[in-house]
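Why predict the complex rather than its parts? Because the way molecules touch one another can change local conformation, and only a joint prediction can capture that. The input here totals 691 residues.
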Amino acid sequence: MTSKEVQLLLVEDNNDDVELTVHALRRENLANNIMVVRDGEEALDFLFCRGAFQDRSFDRPPKLVLLDLKLPKIDGLEVLKHVKADARTRTIPIVILTSSKEERDLVQGYNLGANSYIQKPVDFDQFRNTVKNLGLYWLLINEAPVTTGLAAAATEAG
Amino acid sequence: MSTKGTEADKESLRVLLVEDNPADVELIRLELQRDGFQVQSDVAEDYAQLEEKLGGADYDLVLADYNLPGCRGMEALELIQRKALQTPVILVTGALGDVTAVECIKRGASDYVLKDHLARLRVAVGRALQETRLQTQKREAEKQLADKVEELARSNRELEQFAYVASHDLQEPLRMVANYTQLLADRYQEKLDANAEKYIRYAVDGAVRMQTLIQDLLAYSRVGRRGLHLKTVDANLAVDEALQNLRTAIEESQAVVSHDRLPCIVADNSQLVQLFQNLIGNAIKFCGPEPPAVTISARNTADHWIFSVLDNGIGIAPEHAETIFVIFQRLHTHAEYPGNGIGLAICKKIVEQHGGKIWVESELGKGSTFHFILPITKPGTERRTT
Amino acid sequence: MTSAAEVLLVDDNPADSDLTCEVLTGGREQLQVRMVSDGVEAFAYLHHLGKYSGAALPDLILLDLNLPRRDGRAVLADIKQNASLRKIPVVVFTTSQAAQDIARSYELGANSYVTKPGNLRDFVSAVKSLEEFWLRFATLPVEENHD
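Output of the joint prediction:
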């Protein structure tokens, strides 16, 4: 799988959480095309098709981004802000998956345009259940935009 | 040459003479009249007058003296070309070397005529006028074509709008019928006798059939209406997407779908997905007693890719091999197999839109193999057609 | 979410909204579902106008797109461009599967888009998934006090 065909981008620096998340998704057969990045800068490189991810294209966005907030280099809310501010990436569904219980983060997350915000359960089983549920909802029930904003505008006009 | 033709017989000719010698002007006018033209002429003696005249009226022809000091013939030619007038220019001159003559023609002059061979004017003028006529016809034909294309595009947009509205407005009441008849069946079971249950079942079936019919019709009309959005597509991913869309059917039938390493091809991605989805979906639907097994492979010739979708289903009798691709043609009743006979018609339309062909090899009871060819397009031909 | 959650359902088809409401409240005692049937009513509800002056802001909005009087897309734009409303998650729940409707909804800020399935079983299942994800697993933004 090249970085072009990623369905789900997981932005998480904690190894245990990465393992748990990927494992939970795999059990539901939802883990075929997951890309994991470990910090905010890599996440932005990926989503903006630059740096190590230059071969990616804006019109094959991931169906979902799972975004932790506490990240090295660039934190989650910054990443969110950049992604939602750019017409090429604005419509990519971003679900914040974080251990933060700060109301400030919650409100800001939604205000900045996060599609959803989920607090990571501490309990192992609950965590797995949460990931399973969010995976099923965002990858199977939710309709993700097929093209990003600009391409969609072109389709409407054409 | 008779000059006694009636005025009506004469072809009218508006000519601009770029010439400062009145005698030459007269000679040329006389010659043109002798050639059967009804001449209306203007004279420009230098560049400024030329510009003025060109700005004022339309001329069928310009006759320009090659060596006029106030305005060389080539300058006149350049001016006319700069103004993007379609008026042909014939250079009239004293002696002219062959090389210069060829040079004039290359630079866009229609012809040249020597002053002491004015008799040639008839042929030269005739040819120049004919050229112009042909150019005008060509431009008109092109405009008509452009108009037709615009009309077609507009008609397509209207159809698209109609299809969208029809589909949405049709689906909503259908859903009401389907949902609530099913709710009736679910919640009033004890209160319903066998007949009532049967009636409800037929109602639900009818609603469901209409729903699939609408969706299939929409899909059919979408092919070709949207034009092709061609780009390099990985056929393996297209198959994966089709399988995702078919996941419920695959799970329920325990189907096993496998494919060789398929190539990257230039195609419309969503149509390619639809194509695979319909073929694989059919293979699953029309399965035999065993769980469906589907294999997809591809091989190429110098200018085609040939894809094959092989299944272990009920097969198709050879006499039906062509009719199954016709829209609404079904080989079974609704009780035997669901469907409305559009799936393969869509496949055929998609393949033919890409410039290919589709056909089936099959025997009753021995499974089927659907083959389709897609021409190999050179890279760089990716484009959007409307 | 432990306190009573409020869901605003914006749909002009009572056949759909009745069923949706039933499925939503089926599993939970503490769920209030408010229903409005056109875009103007939705606007009034969210801005506490007229008969809605005492209304609380919903925790979640399910929004159909094709509404009379004021189209769902306009309602969506209103919500997402309004500083105090935009944090409320809006799930577009509608008949259309058209790519341009999906794309446009996200462009206007929809949090999620779910196409109404055509048969009862899948319809119920979709609403249940909506309820489960948004009201049990997701953390919804706390409503700010308004006066």
